[in-house]
Amino acid sequence: MVTAVIVGAGHRALTYASYSKAQPDKLKIVGVADPIALRREQVAAQYGLSPAQCFESASALAAKGKIADAVINGTMDRDHVSTTLPLLDAGYDVLLEKPFAVTEAEVHTLDTAVKRTGRKVMICHVLRYAPFYTALKQRVLAGEIGDIINIQTAEHVSYHHVVIGYVRGKWHRKDLCGSSMLMAKCCHDLDLISWFKSGIAPKRVASFGGLHYFKRDHAPVNSGEHCLLDCPIENDCLYSARKHYLDHPQRWSFYVWAGLEHIQNPTLADKEASLKEKSNPYGRCVWKLDNNVVDRQSVLIEFADGSTATHNMVGGCSKGERKIHIVGTRGELHGSIDEEKYRIRRIDPRPGHECDEVEHSLRHEGDTTGAFGGHGGGDLRLVADFVAALEGRQPSISCTVLADSVNGHLIGFCADRAMEQNTIVEF
Ligand SMILES: NC(=O)c1ccc[n+]([C@@H]2O[C@H](COP(=O)([O-])OP(=O)(O)OC[C@H]3O[C@@H](n4cnc5c(N)ncnc54)[C@H](O)[C@@H]3O)[C@@H](O)[C@H]2O)c1
User: Fold this and answer.
1) What's the pLDDT tens digit per position in 276-287?
2) Ligand 1 centroid distance, CA of 233 (Å)
3) Confidence class for position 367, pLDDT limits 50, 70, 90
4) 96 alpha carbon to ligand 1 midpoint, in Å?
5) Atom of ligand 1 nearest to the CA of 255
6) Strand 202-210 relative to strand 425-426: parallel, antiparallel, unpaired?
7) How many whole angstroms separate alpha carbon 333 and alpha carbon 343?
8) Average pLDDT for 371-392
9) Does residue 191 line the site of ligand 1, with CB under 6 A?
10) Which of ligand 1's atoms lies nearest the C-alpha of 36?
């Protein structure tokens, strides 16, 4: 049995910690560290922790010495490295949220500390664990499409997702949260590209993008500042806070209703009152906020073996979707994780043929039941692999050890630099 302390008792860390409820003989939660007393109390009640097992910060936990095998670090982006360093020194292995660093310098600081302490740090690149991407990786490793010459990935971020996270929400300003939208949203996709090209270094990166739609110029004529307070056109607006949050009270609830955590079961009236508070960004007009992260960005990568890759992040789509197309010297793999199916196509030069193509559905994997959590079933499979790695078992092909997660992050930082400085960045 692996024991772990929750560091940063927010939505993500609690999702991973829930593995201990499904598999109590494999993972046990034995502590919590969070500056918010209410969150510490809620975790203590859920996992039966005593006050001695509750800490006000990661550093207070580290100062106590090692009380568990591992920590699950679900703090916010810019706290990942500073909270992890003392815990590595205290002897903990770490399951660490992405993006694991907010600058290239932080990437190297963490990498050096991991090598120095010899601890295991696994990054929460949950998509590697989704059966959809694992199946593609298995086919690539089996040589079924030959050597990869190009990868195209796309993330269409839905209209409600882009505003909850990157216009009204926690990642709306890089100077506040530490991450660009590319790093916060798509370090997963850049990681997948690097994972499929594992062992081949990226060589150079270009990128275009910007904040173009969610700014004042696009505010509808006569729109107000706060959807439920002063907006005469709210009824006709696609981004009305009432339509996004009151008509869909469960959607993104962990973000939009975080301010109501002190109420056990907030009613719709509580939620409406919260959205009417002028200080609540989730009630604000999406064209009149102070967001400064992009709402679209395209990235172009060249690897050392001459292969190329592109990633398109598009915010404001009618439906969220992640797509991938991998072209190899013998064939192709392409599909959408949201459709839970992919096609494999192989060159077939026989008379009367051009290529053969077979569709594979992943629905039989059982993920539609949600048994393995979000991200196409990746969330809890990642935790299972972390536990296996700590038990000394053979890590899976998805294993996201830090050294193997560095390239994806560096591509992201270089892409942001390339976009901001209108240049090509060489590694
Ligand atoms: N893997 C994924 O697919 C995925 C998806 C969404 C978010 N994330 C990432 O997960 C992370 C957490 O997001 P969230 O929405 O759960 O955040 P959150 O804000 O709900 O939780 C973070 C918690 O950390 C606590 N904290 C702050 N400083 C601390 C310290 N020094 N020691 C201990 N705790 C501290 C905060 O009080 C808070 O409770 C973010 O980095 C986010 O980018 C990852």
Assistant:
1) 999 999 999 999
2) 35
3) very low
4) 10
5) 15
6) antiparallel
7) 6
8) 87
9) no
10) 37
Q: How far, in Å, is the centroid of ligand 1 from the Cα of 10?
A: 5
Residue whose Cα lies nearest atom 40 of ligand 1: it is: 76
List Cα–Cα distances, 92 to 21, 38, 120, 189, 383, in angstroms.
Answer: 22, 25, 8, 28, 16
Please name the helix (run of DSSP H) or strand (run of DSSP E) that holds residue 108, with its range, or none. Answer: helix 104-117
pLDDT at 247 over 90: yes
d(CA 381, CA 405): 17
Q: Which domains can be identified in the chain, with CATH numbers?
A: 2-97 (3.40.50.720), 127-214+291-426 (3.30.360.10), 216-283 (no CATH)
Mean pLDDT value of segment 244-252: 95
Task: Give the C-alpha separation, 55 to 63, whole Å.
Answer: 10
Contact between residue 426 and residue 411 where contact means Cβ atoms under 8 Å apart: no
Start-to-end C-alpha separation, the chain: 42
Atom of ligand 1 nearest to the CA of 35: 37
**352 alpha carbon – ligand 1 mean position (Å):** 56
Binding site membership of 124 for ligand 1 (Cβ less than 6 Å): yes
Q: Which two tokens stand for residue 289?
A: 């906020």
361 beta partners: 341
Instruction: Report pTM.
Output: 0.95
Ligand 1 site-directed mutation target among 14, 34, 255, most atoms within 8 Å of CB? 34
Which segments of 118-242 does DSSP mark as H helices, in order? 131-141, 159-166, 174-177, 181-196, 227-230, 241
Q: What six digits make up the tokens of 28?
A: 């046990």
State which ligand 1 atom lies nearest to the alpha carbon of 179: 43
Query: Is the CB of residue 75 below 6 angstroms from any atom belonging to ligand 1?
Result: yes
